[in-house]
Amino acid sequence: MDLYRIHGDNIVECERIANIIIAETRPAKICCTLTSPSTITFILNFNYENQIYEWQLDLLPGFNKSGRHRWQDNIFNPLRENGSFLDETPDAIITQVIGNTETILFAIEFCSALQAGNQAWQRSGRAFSTGRTQCPYIYIVDFVKYELDSKTRKRKALRFPNPAVPYSYINFSRTTGNFVAQVYVRAEEFDKLQEPILRTFDENNFAEKELSIYLVRKMCGLDTSAIEQIIFNKNLGVVSYLASSSNARSNFVESDWNNLYTNNQDIIDYSINNSTFPFRKKITTKGHHGKSADVQNIVEKISKGLASKDLPFGIIPSQNRPFLAQSLEHLYPDFDKNILSQIANTNKDLIFCMLKGFKPGGDDNRPDRGLLPLISMLSSVDTEIMTYIYGPVLENNYNMLISHPKKLAHANGLWKSILSLSDYVALDVPILSACPRDASILLNTKALKTYYSGANIQNTHTLSAPVFPSIPLEYHEDDVDTGIHFLFAHLLSDCCFEGMCNPPGGDWSGFSIIHCNSEARWLSLPRVSTDIAGKRPDHILELFGIFDKPVLLSIESKERSIDLEPDVGTRLINYIRSLMNFVPNVTRQLNPIQWWSRGIYQIPFSDYYSVSAAAYLRSCAQNNAVVFDNSHCDMLFIMEPHANGWDIEIITQTNEAAILKEFLLSKIPQNTAACITLH
Asked: How are the residues of the chain apportioned to helix, strand and coil, as percentages rounded to the nearest 5?
């Protein structure tokens, strides 16, 4: 039996990949069980391209991230040893275990978020950092997504990413010789009949089938070059579609992107020779600080637009670099003269990036972590980049930038992105401190760029490591979610529909219910509903055959019961009730299953019983009465891990919850070897 592992942020993303593999291989037999409290295992027997395979897929959710030492080893170590230096990691890593060695095969990223504005390049850091290690990287994009009005939940106008974003993946693959690609899959809301702007989109550019073929062929050790080229061609088709409505006075148009791809041209050279527009980032008058407006005006006069006029970066042709240096010296007389002299060097073109970077409170704007990686993927790593920052900076960070920049990069992901990929960094910023002030400084960061881009790489040229231990050192909320998910989605699948599973790191993209032989789904879910005191559940399960109507069981999962928010049980139900006051975004008929269509009628909340619950570890449990008094939940799932599963004690507070408990006990007899015992 061949052993593969799917390491992921959470159980949902692990299982999503497993389901793609299962759909492609169409096993004659599937066995699903728990091999540890944290590990769901699938055993597959199938015939693929005239070969018989028997695979074991181990799903290992929850990485060593955010300061946690969950596992004895870190699955990201082989990537870091081969040049993955940013604090951005993919959603999932798929490995093969042979003997005592575990080898990374590829990495996957999911995105159900709106691909517009800076959100479009939020994950570019993950693609860049992973892809440069020669680990194949696939970014799965749901197309298309709508922004919803926060109060009415009505759809706003469709928004799309700049074509430069998907093209950067194509270019990066070419420059690295590694497969780094976006795969566009049909989102639930994709509807040409309802959206005229989508009617010119070629649905052949969706690549669900090619994705599944790639994964399985890669795992089988078969050649994937042909399917990779098909995916790239589909990527280019998406680029062409996105560019088809572009205005040539401010953007590359479809012919520009096709010329770049067909002739394998460098985008910097192409832009200098063909761009008819300068670079001018859109910044509101209120958004400027210090002399940033003057800098913006100067750069506009001497720049060439790179793909688009209003992207946050453009090109200063080499012959214009002396003027840039002179202008900066005039605006900032205290800037380092030696560095200004280097900026005036006319040997290379310079990419100039304007970046606010930080929010009013000093926290980094997370999508901007991907901006410098996007530039590097779109051009090349050896391109000279100057980053100009005008957003607020915490005093401690500013002082550390001057005295210990490497330490600052280690502590903050946005600073690492800036300092590791920029040759020069200029700041004109407000300093957030007890005594606020303004500051401006110019730094040469070439040494840091060299350090991160190559000098610290061990160059092992292998993505292998000793086999990864599959038993965590300690149990957390990730494991509670795995246990709940396995219980309801697998052991109780004949009487339960999993409407939502939202573990840590999930994208909470939607919540579904079954109603009148149809699945209704609400998308782009808010985190909270403050106006009605609602909280988004971690799990929503629809259970049948208990009462005269289905039960909606909403669960809040935690590692510790003390972390449950006051009155969370009431707030879970309020959230669902509030969401169901709106027409679902999409619906689809079941039996036979059909594709999604726009929702047209509201589903009554009164058609369901509602039960709220909390789930947490026994080792971190308070007295039951205390938990009930604080949470106001109807029932508790107190979970204790054992060798290959869970012991779950169910405590009830209401009559409906007591009946639900008896139903669950009848479905999971204690004398079975089901990996989960209930009592």
From this structure: 35, 25, 35
The pairing of beta strand 609-617 with beta strand 597-598: unpaired
The model scores a pTM over 0.90: yes
| Helix extents (H) in 283-320 | 292-302
The tens digit of pLDDT for each residue in 42-59 reads: 999 999 999 999 999 999
The residues with which 104 forms a beta bridge, in sequence order, are 95
Distant-in-sequence contacts of 527-533, Cβ < 8 A, 24+ apart: 528/575, 529/574, 529/575, 529/578, 529/579, 532/574, 532/575, 532/577, 532/578, 533/567, 533/570, 533/571, 533/574
3-class SS at 570? Answer: helix
Cβ–Cβ under 8 Å, residues 477 and 558: yes
Angle at 293 between CA 356 and CA 301, to 5 degrees: 110
Q: In what order do the strands lie in the sheet with 496-501?
A: 496-501, 539-543, 551-557, 609-617, 635-642, 645-652, 676-678
Question: What mean pLDDT value characterizes the chain?
Answer: 93
Whether 335 contacts 426, CB under 8 Å:
yes
Can you read off the two tokens belonging to residue 409? 């990069």
In angstroms, the CA 77 to CA 464 distance is 9
Q: What is the DSSP letter of 426?
A: E
Residue 198 CB coordination number (10 Å): 16
DSSP 451: I
pLDDT digits (tens, 9 = 90+) for 80-110: 999 999 988 899 999 999 999 999 999 999 9
Nearest CA to 628 out of 610, 609, 612, 641 is that of 612
For residue 654, give both structure tokens.
């209401």
Q: Are 557 and 484 in contact (CB under 8 A)?
A: yes
pLDDT at 587 over 70: yes
Instruction: State how far the Cα of 443 lies from the Cα of 629, in Å rounded to an integer.
Output: 57
Backbone angles phi, psi at 319, to 5 degrees: -70, -15
Enumerate residues 6+ apart whose C-beta is below 8 A from 625. Answer: none
- Closest to 399 measured CA to CA, from 383, 387, 415: 415
Q: Do strands 39-48 and 29-36 pair parallel, antiparallel, or not at all (unpaired)?
A: antiparallel
Which tokens belong to 209?
A: 């089938």
Q: Which residues have CB under 8 Å from 464's CB, separation 6+?
A: 78, 101, 102, 103, 104
| In the block, residue with structure tokens 């991160």 | 452
Specify the pairing of strand 101-111 against strand 92-98. Answer: antiparallel
Residues forming beta bridges with residue 33, ordered by sequence position: 41
* 108: its two tokens: 């996957």
Answer whether 639's CB lies under 8 Å from 618's CB. Answer: yes
The neighbour count for residue 273, using CB atoms within 10 Å, is 9
280-320 tens-digit pLDDT: 998 999 999 999 999 999 999 999 999 999 899 999 999 99
Instruction: Find the length of the chain.
Output: 679
Cα dihedral across residues 524, 530, 532, 533: positive or negative: positive
Given a contact cutoff of 8 angstroms between Cβ atoms, the answer to whether 227 and 136 are in contact is no
As to burial, measured by CB atoms within 10 angstroms (0-12 exposed, 13-18 middle, 19+ buried), residue 513 is: buried
Region for 409 from its dihedrals, namely left if φ exceeds 0, alpha if ψ lies in -120 to 50, beta otherwise = alpha
CB 99 within 8 A of CB 2: no
